[in-house]
Every structure is written in C-alpha cells, then in structure tokens.
Design a protein that fits this description.
DNA-binding; alpha/beta; 3 domains; 434 Repressor (Amino-terminal Domain); Rossmann fold; 11 helices; 345 residues; elongated; homodimer; 6-stranded parallel β-sheet
Chain lengths: 345, 345
Amino acid sequence: MAKPTIVQVARLAGVSNSTVSRCLNQPENVDKKTLARVRKVIEDIGYRPNLLAQNFRRGQSDIVLVVVHNVGASIFSNILDGIRGVLGSRFSVILMESRAEAQGHARFIDLLVAKQVVGVILLCASPTFDPRLIGGFDHQPRLPVVIGLEPVSADLADLPSVHIDNHRAAFDATTYLLDMGHREIAFISGEKDSPITLDRERGFAEAMAQAGCAAPSARILHGDLSIQGGIAAAHRLLGRPERPTALFCANDDIALGAMSVAAQLGISVPEDLSVMGFDDTIYAATANPPLSTVAQPTREVGERTAKQLLHALDHPEDAEQLTEILPHRLIIRKSTAPLRQKGKA
Amino acid sequence: MAKPTIVQVARLAGVSNSTVSRCLNQPENVDKKTLARVRKVIEDIGYRPNLLAQNFRRGQSDIVLVVVHNVGASIFSNILDGIRGVLGSRFSVILMESRAEAQGHARFIDLLVAKQVVGVILLCASPTFDPRLIGGFDHQPRLPVVIGLEPVSADLADLPSVHIDNHRAAFDATTYLLDMGHREIAFISGEKDSPITLDRERGFAEAMAQAGCAAPSARILHGDLSIQGGIAAAHRLLGRPERPTALFCANDDIALGAMSVAAQLGISVPEDLSVMGFDDTIYAATANPPLSTVAQPTREVGERTAKQLLHALDHPEDAEQLTEILPHRLIIRKSTAPLRQKGKA
DNA sequence: CTGAAAGCGCTTACAG
DNA sequence: CTGAAAGCGCTTACAG
C-alpha cells in the first residue's frame, strides 16, 4: 500500500490532477462543490502532498537559513523560538554557526546554492555573511534577507532589520553607572568592528564624554562575546591597582566571566566593582550576585524578523524595507552599586 | 543564463545523461577517461546537481532531524557541533524541541512524514518521541534512529545509543559527597520517570543505601531540568531548619538555580551547603562559587551518535545495534566541601 | 471553472 | 562500460 499521490485523489474524486492541485494551492479558483468533494477524498485516504515533489517542481525548497554566531549562546534560544513560531510548519529552519565557518563565505554560499534556501535570517552580520552577497551569484535570484538583533550599518540600510537601539541602550546603561558616581568605567566589547557592538561602543563613549571623562574610547576593550572573552579582559583590567570601579560588558557571558575573575582576585561585586551585562540571558538573574543588565525583547526580535521574512517571501514585488526598533530595558539587580568613597581601603 | 543541468554536461562531454549521473554517484562504474572528461566539463561550467531534483527522484530528503529538549540548554551546543561535524555538508540538520511540542507525538510524526526526514537523532527519549513509533506509520519505511545522551530503557535496548554510564556517574558523585562526610544529601532530579534521570536516581539511591542512609528515594525531588526547577526545589528544601547539607543536582542549571536560592537565604556554599551539578556546561566553571560537577564528553556524544546514524543510513542491511558507553569524569571545584562538624551554628 | 499535456532534473532498470 | 527511455509527483500555461 503505497503512499497516496495526487493521481489517486484525482481518480477517486473524478477530476483531473490539475484540479486537485488547484484545490491545494488556489482553492479560490475552484468550484465550491468540486472543492468539497476533493477535500473529502483527501481526508478519507489521508493524502498529503509530497513536499519533495513540490519543492522540486517549484524550484525552491522550504528551508530558511538562520545564521547565528554560536548556537550555544543562550540569547538565541528565545529568538529561535520566536522565529519557529512564525515560520511554523511551512518552513524548515536550519542553523548555521558563523563562528564554526573557518572557510567562511565560500561555504556559506555553497550551502545557499546547494540547499536552495528560500530566505535567510542573519542574527550576526559579520562581513563573512555580507548580505549583499546573498543571491545574485551562480545564476541564483537574489534571496530575501532579514537582519535580526544586530544593527545594520549604513551601507546595508536597504535591508530590513529588527533590533533595539543599541546606541541608546548602551548610553542608558553607562549613564546609570555614571549616575551611581562611577567615572572609572571600562567597556568590555566584542570583536573590533563587530557590527553588534559598534553601536554599543558609541553609546558608551558618548555618555562618558558627556560626563566629562577624557578619552572614553581608550576605555574600550575588544575581545570575544563569551565567558572566555570576559575572563581575558578582566585579567587585563583587574590585575592592576588603578583598576576601574565599574565594568560595562557587551553581553552577559562576558560579565559572568569578568565576575568570576573578580571573585578569584578577592574583589567584591558590587562593593569594590560594579558589573553590568547586556541581554538579560537566563543566567543573569541567578548569578552571584544577580547581574544588572540590559534586556532585549528576544522572542519579539525573532517573531518580527520572521514576519518580515515571511512578508518578503509572499510579496516579492513589495520592496518596502522596514527597520524595526524594539524597546530595551535596564534591569537593575545586585551587581551594581553606588561608588564607594575613597577612604575605603 | 540558467543554472547548468545534467543535460548540458552530457552534451558538452559527448555522453548521455545516464553517464553523467553515474560519474556523480557511482564513479567506479565509469571508464577512467570518460570520467575525467565529464569531470572536466562539470568543473568548467560549474555544474552542481540540483539537490531538490535528487531528493525528489530518490524519494528522500537530506534532512536529519535532531530532537532536543530545549535548544537553549548549553549542553547541546557541543553535541550539535559534533553532529554537524560528522554529518557535514551531506545532510541538513533540523532541530525540534520536545518541550515546545504541546501537540506532542502527532506533530512529530507529521514533521517526519511531511519533511521526509531520512534519519533521527533523539537527544531526549521522552515518551512523546518514542522511537518505536518512528517509521512504520503512514506507508513510510522505518527510519534509522540513534539515541544520544540518554540511557535507553530496557524495552528500547534494540536501538543504538551513545551515552555515559549515568548510573555509575551518579553513584560516583554521591559517593564523593558521602566521603566528604555528608549524610543529609538530597537529589534534585528532573521529571519523574524522565529517562535521562532515572539511571542517575538509581545511582544516587544505591550509593546512599550502601552508606546506610535510610529511605534514599525519599530524598529525591522531581522537577524540571532547568534553573527554575532548581529554584523551586531549593525553596522546598532549604526553607526548613533540618535542611540537607549537600545537594546533588541532575544538571548544572538546577545547581545554579539552587545556589541562587542559597545565596538569597544567606546559606553559604560550600560552608553550609555543598552543591554538585551534572554536565559541566560552560556556566559551571565561572559560577560563584565555581561548581563541582560531573562532566560528559559532549562533543564526542554528538560525533559518535552521528557516526552511528551515518552507518545505519549507508548500510541499512546491517542491523547491528551498538550501545556506546562514553567515560564521565568528576570535576571538583569549590561548591563542595567536607561536612562541617555540629557545633557550627 | 476544468482538463490534457508538457515538463521540472534527475536516477534506474534494461538492453546492448 | 554506455545509452535510450521511462518515470518520480507535482505545477503550470494553455485551451476550452
């Protein structure tokens, strides 16, 4: 008993294949009674269109590629949930890790071509995955691309994107630290020129400059957006006596790494050192001490990103490119405190 | 300029489509010289087989479905890396979250049927994803399934699986705690009857019983393998005066949640309470205090699981079912310490 | 609103 | 070792 195909349905319903196909794909163009009859047969024999045949015939798969820096980063969990929720069962999501791609761009393109992906969501806008290079190659049409989470640099401004105002968020967080009396603030950032942190660095520098701190950009350390990155930076920063009194970290993992170094060195957080993270991942609230941080609406980022992609897929003629700015929120917990007066030691 | 197809290659090489196809799929059956000529043409015009057509024609996709409880759990990061490394570019990995599947089994089957997945890796052997139900339904052939990370219950013993000896690992960890003088030890586990924790619970109970502790299974709390689960259990456990002196947690997230509750309640870890985790995720080492835990070779779990699947895919006739037991390792950091003598308070 | 026919790009017996 | 031919299950102009 083989899997039923469209021809069995057609035979049983007494119509042609074309009509069955229309019932599936453009029911509005089918007579009500015919439609009902065909649907009944479909139901009765449990017919399901062969996706492989559909994809082949239509010349495109049902695969959406989502590029993340690192699947393990807990921030992606909610975002991916949001994406899957919207894309639903109509599309399959496959993940690619930018950090794992030593071969970089070539393999990325390979994958796009080989898998005949229908759309791309970039949750990391590294140069390797320059969205301008998506499509237009190898006889492929240009693919819809949406950028999520990351700000979009000016030269990519024509691409739809969904993210918070990173500049403003970093400005707010830094201002909060400044308001607590801190002046010796260091910003532990990600890779130099990484798009996700550039805006944050500018926000930091701007707040610092407004508060009269000299050469704020000298207070920015570049590294890796990871626990290891936080550890490395903290070792450089906290080993010396004239260490900063507050650390603003480009993400929570960095902050967690930095706090562990502080603990090792016997520096108390927040008494001797305030630490502020970014993202409000699930590990922030239970850190010891609980981490103050900047929250992003991650699930919403995923949902909105996916909705924009869906729109682009369903309305290829509609070239409207939206930039959606979602709200951020300062979450103050226990890892930050007012600057202690000098005579502390 | 359309994407080149097999017929252009055939024409340019002066052979038939069949021969080009053979060059691609069974080069050993092609004359060396013909092969070389065809390959040259392929190279020259940049031909790449249309995967969509291949999949359709062969009646199967190149998709491997990996089921995890929760993508965000950091333990899966390395495992997925391992899987991807082995499955490489030949297959696409799509992820399904068991926790997200309220509809459960039905949707799972739907996905399998609809996407025509070629193989399944189960990183969570919940009843919803009972591997015996994979395949055999809806006119589909039985699919190769490999279980990773989780122990396999006796009734599924005919399925290949890759995991540590969870019973032994829990026994070892509990014994370590007992050797430190602890007797009032609680085990915070996952869902009741969750296969991943059953073996661990038995290992715990066995070690406790050997040490003469009465009713060890009464010391097992069931909840959720998450930070929230750890928080909930810790609230039940640590609120009362006759609280345990040591907590053994079924994973690191639980331990992190429990430690945060201890911190809130002013209970010092490890002075007043030893806490032991499981998995050695990236958040264990930088916790405050750094978390003692049981490490699993996660990347290897992924690689071995994927290799078994690959074997099953390439040798469907070979029914050999392997159970691979990988080594575990106790990692002792700062969250565990010898029991303090009574007169502490 | 419906049907007959062609065709998407490949693979696979089959015959030679 | 190679080629001619059929066919996988669907969709899509086209004609009526």
